[in-house]
Automatic annotation (TrEMBL):
Gene3D superfamilies for the chain: Cupin (2.60.120.650)
The protein's name in its UniProt record: JmjC domain-containing protein
UniProt feature coiled coil, ranges: none
GO terms assigned for molecular function: chromatin DNA binding; histone H3K9 demethylase activity; metal ion binding; transcription coregulator activity
Source organism: Kingdonia uniflora
Localization (cell): Nucleus
Family named by the database record: Belongs to the JARID1 histone demethylase family.
Keyword Phosphoprotein: no
GO terms under cellular component: chromatin; histone deacetylase complex
PROSITE patterns: JMJC (PS51184)
Biological classification of the source: Eukaryota, Viridiplantae, Streptophyta, Embryophyta, Tracheophyta
Main location: nucleus
An example Gene Ontology biological process: regulation of transcription by RNA polymerase II
Keywords: Metal-binding, Nucleus
């Protein structure tokens, strides 16, 4: 019934029965050992392209260093938290090849196997496609992102609003809490307040001075949220026109990589 209505289903503790460790550093060590044994020692540096969420551009980083910062945190020179993220790493074909045990464990742990199993789910339409047809990538795909409990306002690890081409299963397999030092937290709050004031000034310059600046949203950035590993905003299919109306009305509140407010919107 939930599927027919387009409603999300939340299933807890799907990996509780797993006998494998999903700690990123342990998985990276296993990955490096597998690459050394199958390729050559020179290919085990594991450099990847990570997205810098503030500059919205890609940067090269060693995967070991990436996950070290994931656990310990990393800041720019002005003490603003650095948010990096990896998308589609490892690619699904390499995930199965280089982390075969984790691949099998993950597929087995998926809830509603009849719909979600990419190989033998009898209600999974992709399984029914002819063998020679071009099938969509059924995953699994990994998304790894930094984050802190407080919303930054600029440079947060987010996925842009989009419409999935098919139903999807998202599994939260690991979280790490990064705690800012008191000194870093003070500088962070000062910078964030300056950003908010800058946004207000720029909006008044670009648009009518009477423009209401989503005050409630900006003030909420200073409040602690419940400590969750991830936040998904999911909308009904029938609400697409409402989302389009919202974007057309509030497009000027969105900021690009150069901290400039958007001047036009397309939906």
């Amino acid at each position: 019934m939930h599927w027919i209505k387009g409603e999300p289903v939340i299933v807890h503790n799907v990996l509780d029965t797993s006998c494998l460790s999903w700690d990123p550093m342990i998985m990276v060590r296993g990955l490096r050992e597998r690459m050394i044994s199958t390729v050559s020692k020179g290919c085990a540096q594991l450099e990847v392209m990570a997205m810098d969420c503030l500059a919205w551009c890609e940067t090269v980083v060693n995967i070991h260093q990436f996950f070290k910062w994931y656990s310990e945190g990393q800041c720019y020179g002005n003490m603003w938290p650095k948010m990096l993220k990896l998308k589609d790493w490892l690619p699904s074909n390499l995930f199965e090849e280089l982390l075969s045990c984790h691949f099998v464990e993950f597929i087995t742990a998926l809830p509603f196997q009849e719909c979600s199993n990419p190989n033998c789910g009898f209600l999974n339409l992709a399984v029914k496609l002819p063998k020679k047809s071009l099938k969509p990538d059924m995953g699994p795909k990994t998304y790894v992102a930094y984050g802190i409990n407080k919303e930054l306002g600029r440079g947060d690890s987010v996925t842009k609003l989009h419409c999935d081409m098919s139903d999807a299963v998202n599994v939260l397999i690991h979280t790490a809490e990064v705690v800012l030092s008191p000194g870093s937290l003070t500088k962070f709050e000062d910078l964030k307040n300056k950003h908010i004031e800058q946004d207000k000034r720029e909006l008044k310059e670009l648009f009518d001075a009477s423009l209401e600046y989503n005050k409630a949203e900006k003030e909420s950035r200073g409040h602690d949220l419940e400590k969750n590993g991830v936040l998904w905003d999911i909308f009904h299919r029938q609400d697409v026109p409402l989302l389009q109306q919202y974007l057309l009305k509030h497009y000027n509140e969105f900021i690009d990589v150069h901290c400039a407010h958007a001047r036009q919107a397309f939906t």
